[in-house]
TrEMBL record:
One of the Pfam families matching this protein, by short name: D123
Top-level taxon of the source organism: Eukaryota
Organism listed in the record: Lotharella globosa
Region spans: Disordered: 11-30, 167-208, 471-491
Biased composition (Basic and acidic residues): 15-25
Residue ranges crossing the lipid bilayer per the database entry: none
Protein name: Cell division cycle protein 123
Compositional bias segments (type: Low complexity): 176-198
Length: 491
């Protein structure tokens, strides 16, 4: 899960490179994605349209409809949260710039700006707004506002029912298929690429997404995610060198931080109640954008038609072991690890086996998909044990709308590989040395900046704590006892 920080020197007709030369303007993903072809009821990018073609090889899914009123309520909730956040940010910015002691010591304009941009990414603020807005709506004398609250509670209940149904069905299926799996363990179709009945779904949770996209961005700002990461950092044996503001993260710390973020975000996306599922939708800009797009592109007598897919959570799947296959004119052109920040020596060592399993499974569904589209990307999950492979989803579009992983779409040679081949498979072959990377012609690509800042602060706090403990131990060691006249100097 990553954010892009685009340089500020983008101009009409192109952008400026490091040497000031104009760079050819690249296709903008958002501009391409927000078209009716991707947001109409028959779009093959919607899960309800591609699911039948891969159903045997993916996860149990139940669809929950969203009414027009519920969609409006989701948008209104996010809009109000952002508005209240913006007001809070402005008040804090002004107070900090003026050196108002209520907000701490006087700060420079730059520090004030940084501090004041945090509300919409601040878990405590979001928690307080969640409690306040829903309570406020429930008491509002305006019938429309009160109806928003009622509609969200109805959606929460529908999601809760769907979640319990998916979990109960999965558990029943697992029990019924234990003996079948034992009897068929030597069958080729149940070896390495087995699917609907060959997985462990004991988490009791589900993953949710709209017909179009998931609200995965919301997980980055949840209290659960932040507390999970903080807890892991506090338990870590790795400490920043120096302990001060200049303390640098080692490669081991960078790798560990990436793992902590992925584990925490993944945990937050596994929901067990309708309330947890609804909260993700309410806090997601992706959900807000897709609901808005669906409303915008309605034609004729069409009504709001997005749905929520409630999908079983498979504990066999490690989100860092997901891969994206690109298909152009019905032919596979490229394969990449999905999380291109992630390095795992096991993936590097088993690269050929992973490729073989993915292409083998793709062959089983390609002809069904070809009847609907010949240009798409399809995401797979391979379990670290290499025993199972699953289809995650089908995306009826290619780069730059779809993320291209370790293939850099702005580089012509990579773009040609994505569009024409020859087939190539890329995984990260060495760990990153920082939680960001520079992409030529684009700028700095980094993990979610608020999370990076939080992790750095937590690491620095742990380093200072260790320094104090070591200093205290040194002082205690150097104190002379009654029978000794020795002393030492402590710097």
């Amino acid at each position: 899960m990553t954010d892009f920080a685009i340089p500020g020197d983008i101009v009409l007709g192109g952008e400026k490179g490091r040497n000031g030369d104009e760079v050819k303007q690249r296709p903008q993903p958002s501009r391409e994605y927000f078209r009716r072809e991707h947001h109409n009821p028959s779009s093959y990018g919607r899960i309800e349209n591609w699911l039948p073609d891969v159903k045997q090889f993916t996860f149990q899914t139940t669809m929950v409809p969203i009414s027009a009123l519920q969609a409006k309520a989701i948008l209104k909730y996010r809009d109000e949260t952002k508005l209240r956040g913006a007001v809070r940010d402005q008040e804090r910015r002004e107070a900090l710039s003026a050196g108002d002691e209520r907000w701490g010591a006087a700060a420079s304009g730059e520090a004030a700006q940084d501090f004041a941009e945090k509300s919409i990414h601040d878990p405590k603020f979001l928690d307080s707004m969640y409690a306040f807005i829903l309570d406020d709506w429930s008491k509002d004398k305006d019938k429309e506002v009160n109806a928003w609250h009622t509609s969200l509670k109805q959606l929460e209940q529908a999601l809760d029912t769907a979640i319990h149904s998916v979990v109960a069905t999965r558990r029943d299926d697992s029990k019924n298929n234990i003996n079948n799996n034992k009897n068929n363990k030597n069958n080729d179709d149940n070896n390495n690429t087995n699917y609907s009945n060959n997985r462990d779904s004991d988490s009791g949770g589900v993953f949710i997404k709209l017909s179009t996209r998931s609200p995965k961005d919301a997980s980055l700002n949840l209290t659960k995610t932040h507390e999970h990461i903080k807890s892991n950092i506090r338990a870590s044996s790795l400490v920043l060198g120096g302990g001060g503001e200049e303390g640098k993260a080692s490669k081991e710390i960078v790798k560990e931080d990436l793992r902590f973020v992925n584990e925490a975000a993944s945990s937050s996306l596994c929901v067990t109640t309708g309330a947890e599922a609804l909260r993700l939708l309410l806090e997601s800009d992706r959900a807000h954008s897709d609901i808005t797009a669906n409303q915008l592109y309605l034609e004729g007598d069409e009504n709001f038609n997005l749905q929520i897919a409630v999908r079983e959570w498979c504990s066999d799947v490690d989100s860092d072991w997901e891969f994206r296959l690109f298909v152009v004119d019905g032919k596979s052109t490229a394969l990449t690890i999905y999380n291109d920040f992630y390095y795992d020596a096991r993936i590097v060592a088993n690269k050929e086996a992973i490729q073989a399993q993915i292409l083998s499974l793709w062959e089983k569904v390609r002809h069904s998909i070809d009847k609907k589209t010949k240009n798409y990307c399809i995401d797979f999950a391979v379990t670290p044990s290499l025993e199972k492979t699953f289809i995650i989803e089908v995306n009826n579009f290619l780069a730059p709308i779809a993320g291209s992983g370790l293939f850099k779409y702005n580089k012509m040679e990579d773009r040609k590989l994505l569009e024409e081949g020859p087939f190539s498979f890329r995984v990260r072959t060495a760990p990153l040395v920082a939680l960001e990377e520079e992409i030529e012609g684009v700028g700095i690509r980094t993990l979610h900046p608020p999370l990076v800042a939080m992790m750095k602060a937590e690491r620095l706090a742990m380093a200072r704590k260790k320094q104090k403990q070591e200093h205290k131990a040194t002082v205690a060691t150097c104190q002379p006892d009654a029978s000794s006249s020795s002393s030492c100097s402590v710097m």
